[in-house]
């Protein structure tokens, strides 16, 4: 099974939290740490809803026949 790596980058000067991705139909044969990505129905919660600081990344791997097109559903922007 091919392995795919997903890297979510926060290229904003603001912190992003409560990041949710569309993941309807997402499948993997490889376990993903639920603190990094957890699936709830058709949504995936990233980084356990915790802040992703500016100019940083969150990554995870999954294994499936084809890559999956994750799309952002929502996030909270926190600027100081």
Automatic annotation (TrEMBL):
Keywords: Signal. Pfam families: TPD1_C. The keyword Signal applies. It comes from the Eukaryota. InterPro entries: TPD1 (IPR040361). PANTHER family: BETA-1,3-N-ACETYLGLUCOSAMINYLTRANSFERASE FAMILY PROTEIN, PROTEIN TAPETUM DETERMINANT 1-LIKE-RELATED. This is Uncharacterized protein. It comes from Hibiscus sabdariffa.
């Amino acid at each position: 099974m091919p392995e795919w790596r997903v890297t979510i980058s926060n290229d904003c000067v603001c912190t992003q939290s409560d990041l949710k991705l569309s993941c309807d139909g997402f499948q993997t044969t490889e376990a993903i740490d639920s603190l990094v990505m957890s699936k709830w129905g058709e949504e995936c919660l990233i980084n356990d809803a915790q802040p992703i600081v500016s100019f940083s990344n969150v990554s995870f791997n999954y294994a499936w026949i084809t890559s999956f097109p994750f799309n952002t559903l929502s996030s909270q922007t926190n600027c100081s």
